[in-house]
Design a protein that fits this description.
The structure holds two protein chains of two kinds.
Chain A lengths: L2 E12 L2 E12 L3 E5 L6 H9 L6 E6 L2 E2 L5 H6 L2 E4 L11 H8 L6 H5 L5 H13 L15 H13 L5 E5 L7 H14 L4 E5 L3 H7 L2 E6 L2 E6 L1 H6 L1 H8 L2
Parallel strand pairs in A: 3-8, 3-9, 6-7, 7-8
Antiparallel strand pairs in A: 1-2, 1-4, 4-5, 9-10
Chain B lengths: L1 H7 L2 H22 L2 H26 L8 H25 L4 H5 L7 H5 L15 H25 L4 H21 L1 H4 L10 E2 L2 E2 L3 H27 L1 H11 L1 H5 L5 H27 L9 H14 L4 H21 L4 H15 L3 H22 L8 H12 L1
Antiparallel strand pairs in B: 1-2
Helix pairs in contact in B: 1-2, 1-10, 2-10, 2-18, 3-10, 3-13, 3-14, 3-15, 4-7, 4-13, 7-13, 10-11, 10-13, 14-15, 14-17, 17-18
Classes of the chains: A alpha/beta, B mainly alpha.
């Protein structure tokens, strides 16, 4: 297995506070990695750093050999990194179909988008993704009318339709019912074929279902890394989660 | 062909709305308004270009510019400069007239003469040619919008800060134009414009023709606007307005998209300004500063900032109201205008178009049920068509 994402000595400080502190870790091809940790551990900041929303103060992020720190956000996306945000951010006024259409990776320039043609292959791909994210029956529903769980799925779909090589999912099952969680777990297992996925999640049952490997972060640092069983048995992890 | 019909005209309902507007502009107004009021209408319509541009960049793109007068003004000044040079040449040709005797430098615009300028400034050279002037009408404001847009949007300046910066730019422009008297005519602006390529623009027939040209170009702007809004770019604008980061992390350059739509709005405004100069016969810094720029936003808000057609109706209504009320109650007018703006944004954030969308269907059903009892065909076709159009736009 080749290493896709390589993070080395990554540090970012906000006014002296180190949100991510000397972090080194890597994710392999077709791997589904879950990052867990108590609040304020720097998990979301880590994703922000990878997708370019925040620029690091030190260290490097290499993806398929390229240094992501030097690229603009939109270039990082075009290079194959997709990001789903913590609170589902979809376009409330647009329908599910339009939400997905906008996320389709064609016509991304200004002129390209002006003369973008909604051809058959685009429509097919949108329907295919909609089926994947359980929203086939809601193609014409405006985003704002979806339930919270459906919004989560839609945003996953919006990332998925661009066919990224690395998917970053921030709390994909927050606010979902038990059944929806099951469906999402199946979805994620399907998704990680042919790409790497990094998931941030709190729900341990869910993590157990999907994770190949788990990384535990604490105060911006890497605490432990390993399989779910290893991590759960670890004394340091227990301490961090249960408190002093 | 059908794609073009759907995109530029907005399908069936969009076409109905557009046709209604055309009927109003090309038939009803010329038939029922006297020359004076029709000339006034040309003036209002030249403001409507700005309102249409604002629907694109503010209503749909979420970029509030309180300084569209800047672009409108540059367009207007470019056109005025050309007309003024021609007027100066004409005066020079009138041998021995009082006017020519009063001027020490023949062939220069009068205000330059008053400011002891004896040679045409370089900056005025391009305005000797009509085609170059036309190009500059679009190029100068669009380039300016491009520079402002790139500088601001790349740095993620938005919202109130952007609005304030556009205001400041407007003010800078006013100061510039007032203080460079010799080049711009100062506070009086560029006045006494008479002919365009030898065609007297002050006659009744010329005013009528100019009215039709203005209307035609305005309809053209609506079609262009429709084309943009119905493209993926249009949906991206709405998406950006509601979730800028999501668009950015779907691989788009948000600043490029914003700059583009800002430039389009600027180009439309500039066209309106140029038409104002030629319709009204003068251009002055008071017309391009902060206050008119805010009026333009009010036009757009009252008409409906999401609706291209609504913005035009809003401009006509508010401008007409302004003329009417400011003739009757010159002092009260500002309060009235202010309250209208507050009321509309508070209770009808979608403006007239939104109100019609909301009440139109109800009214339509009422009319329908009234009409269906006696066996009569639909009566107020125009009214219904207008309601239809507003609803879909």
């Amino acid at each position: 297995m080749s290493t896709e994402l390589q993070i080395k000595d990554l540090t970012v400080s906000f006014d002296g506070f180190k949100a991510v502190d000397n972090l080194t870790f890597s994710v392999d091809h077709e791997e589904l990695r879950v990052v867990i940790g108590p609040n304020g551990a720097g998990k979301t900041t880590l994703l922000d750093l990878i997708c370019g929303k925040t620029k690091p103060t030190g260290g490097s992020i290499r993806f398929n050999g390229r240094d992501l720190c030097r690229l603009h956000e939109n270039s990082i996306v075009r290079y194959g990194v997709g990001r789903k945000f913590q609170t589902p951010s979809i376009y409330p006024k647009l329908t599910v179909f339009e939400n997905l259409e906008i996320s389709f990776p064609r016509g991304r320039g200004t002129w390209g988008s002006l003369f973008f043609k909604q051809s058959q292959d685009v429509r097919d791909r949108i329907r295919e993704v909609a089926r994947e994210i359980f929203l086939s029956d809601h193609l014409q529903t405006p985003g704002e009318h979806l339930s919270h769980g459906q919004k989560q799925w839609l945003e996953i779909g919006m990332v998925l339709i661009a066919d990224p090589k690395l998917m970053l999912l921030d709390e994909p099952v927050a606010g979902m019912s038990h059944r929806e969680r099951q469906q999402t777990a199946d979805l994620l297992r399907r998704i990680c074929k042919g790409r790497s996925v990094v998931v941030i999640e709190h729900d341990m049952d869910f993590v157990k279902q999907i994770a190949h490997k788990v990384t535990v972060m604490h105060q911006g640092k890497l605490l432990v890394e390993g399989t779910m069983e290893e991590v759960q048995a670890n004394e340091k992890v227990k301490e961090v989660y249960l408190g002093d | 062909m059908t794609a073009l019909y759907n995109r530029a005209l907005g399908g069936k309902s969009g076409t109905v709305g557009l046709i209604t507007l055309c009927v109003l502009l090309f038939l009803v107004f010329p038939m029922f308004l006297d020359n004076f009021r029709l000339a006034m209408m040309s003036k209002y319509l030249s403001y409507a270009f700005v309102a249409v541009g604002l629907v694109l960049c503010w209503g749909n793109g979420g970029i509030l510019s309180l300084g569209q007068g800047l672009f409108w003004g540059f367009g207007g000044y470019c056109m005025a400069a050309f007309l003024k040079l021609e007027a100066a040449h004409n005066i020079a040709a009138e041998k021995g007239s009082d006017q020519i005797r009063a001027l020490s430098t023949v062939g220069l615009p009068d205000f330059m003469d008053w400011n002891q300028i004896t040679e045409l400034p370089y900056i005025w050279y391009p305005f000797r040619s009509f085609s170059l002037t036309l190009a500059l009408v679009f190029l100068v404001p669009t380039l300016l919008a491009y520079i402002v847009g790139t500088a601001m949007f790349k740095r993620r300046v938005g919202g109130v800060y952007f609005a304030l910066i556009t205001q400041a730019l407007c003010w800078i422009m006013e100061i510039g134009f007032v203080t460079r008297q010799g080049w711009t005519g100062g506070i009086n602006g560029i006045t006494d414009l008479r002919t365009c390529m030898g065609w007297d623009i002050r006659t009744k027939s010329a005013k009528l023709i100019l009215y039709f040209v203005t209307s035609g170009l305005l309809v053209g702007c609506v079609v262009v606007g429709r084309f943009i809004l119905s493209s993926k770019l249009g949906r991206l604008l709405v998406a950006m307005r509601d979730g800028e980061d999501r668009v950015r992390f779907s691989g788009y350059s948000v600043s490029n998209l914003k700059t583009f739509i800002f430039c389009v709005a600027a180009a439309m405004s500039a066209l309106g300004g140029a038409l104002f100069s030629i319709n009204v016969g003068f251009m002055s810094p008071k017309l391009v500063t902060i206050e008119p720029s805010i009026y333009m936003v009010i036009f757009c808000a009252v008409g409906g900032r999401y609706s291209l057609l609504g913005a035009i109706y809003g401009t006509i209504l508010v401008s007409y109201g302004k003329t009417y009320f400011s003739e009757m109650f010159p002092n009260l007018w500002y309060f009235l205008m202010g309250s209208v703006f507050i009321l509309v944004t508070r209770f009808f954030p979608e403006g007239l178009a939104g109100a019609v969308n909301h009440f139109g269907p109800m009214l339509g059903r009422k009319i329908g049920s009234l009409l269906s009892r006696p066996a009569q065909p639909a009566l107020p076709g125009g009214a219904v068509a207008m309601l239809e159009s507003e609803r879909t736009n």
